Amino acid sequence: MTSTLNYAQPLTFPNGAQLKHRIGLAALTNLQSPEKGKISEEEMRWMRMRAEGGCSIIITAATYITPSGQGFPGQIGISSDEQLPGLTAAADMMRANNAMGIVQLIHGGIRCPEAITGMQPVGPSDDSETGARALTLAEIDTIKSQFLDGAKRAQKAGFDGVEVHGAHNYLLAQFLSPIHNQRTDQYGGSIEKRAQLLLEITAEIRDACGPDFVVGVRLSPEHHGVILDETVAVYKMIIEQGVADFIDISMWDVFKEPADEKFQGKSLLSYFTDVDRGNIKLGVAGKLYNAQDIAKSIELGADFVLLGRGAIFNHDFASQALENPDFQMVERPVSREYLEKEGLSAPFINYIASAWPEYLTNP
Ligand SMILES: Cc1cc2nc3c(=O)[nH]c(=O)nc-3n(C[C@H](O)[C@H](O)[C@H](O)COP(=O)(O)O)c2cc1C
Description:
Elements: E1 11-12, E2 18-19, E3 23-25, H1 41-52, E4 57-59, E5 63-64, H2 84-96, E6 100-106, H3 114-117, E7 122-123, E8 133-134, H4 137-157, E9 161-166, H5 171-176, H6 191-194, H7 196-209, E10 214-219, H8 228-241, E11 246-250, H9 268-273, E12 281-285, H10 291-299, E13 304-307, H11 309-313, H12 317-323, H13 336-341, H14 346-355
Parallel strand pairs: 3-13, 4-6, 5-6, 6-9, 7-8, 9-10, 10-11, 11-12, 12-13
Antiparallel strand pairs: 1-2
Helix pairs in contact: 1-2, 2-4, 4-7
């Protein structure tokens, strides 16, 4: 029988690519690939269980486009052909499970500790807190081509597309931020200029990889100096320029009001759903812990949802929600042993234990 649940319906992206339904996996950095950014057995198992658990789109953990853009130990990379076999196996696995496979491309900018990269961090402008220095225009050109090479490598590996990480205060979000970006050249000043790098990278990927390759952009609307109405302006620029098939808004809570009092009185989500986005699809992430909230997100105007913690704690959240409209994520805290059964290995469990000890009975 065909399901009538709104999130069970297929979704067609502007380029014709299809999602089998509306529930996917958000990018989740998990520290499980310590060997030169090559996807490990552990990282593969983590992703495979989510693909087999029904996710219609799998976005990889943030994947560095150059070793100097690595922000976490055990992070996966797409900066060298050495990483291609693991990437190819991951893309094959996603296709075999009828899940759209997307690589999230990142440069961490000022958030790349020298202890990891062996290099002084770089960003839009000098930053006394992290010791980062401002990129030259020639270096910005190099980073643009590294994003492009990353996208081409993802395509070669057989992924359906990429998501350009413009969120969470990593390099492209640092360029968007009036606090981090003090440049006076074409990449600094007005929001149009601060968004230039993100837009150029996205457009170049679209041109180089062709219309069949899915291109997405992730934005986060607040915090780290990011201003909501500027994020909405960037969202509109992406829509107007038609450089992406989807925009993924990382909200940390899909139903919240904006943090900034100036914008309160309506939901954060409505700032995005109120904009005419034509055929470009809107994905959202943030505290979607049960099937009813997913249905509500779609009702409120999102096209699809991306699970973070829901899919950490229940690898088959998507399949369960498709079966049962009252499905709820497992109650926390859970044990380490439970997380191992859900496909997390020790580095990921330790990461969760240090960031959210309250999620574990034995952190
Ligand atoms: C452990 C962990 C790792 C994350 N790693 C990434 C990442 O690599 N890239 C990214 O864009 N967001 C990352 N996020 C944010 C998630 O993609 C998601 O937007 C956020 O967790 C909110 O969704 P949730 O409430 O369903 O967890 C991470 C979140 C968590 C909890």
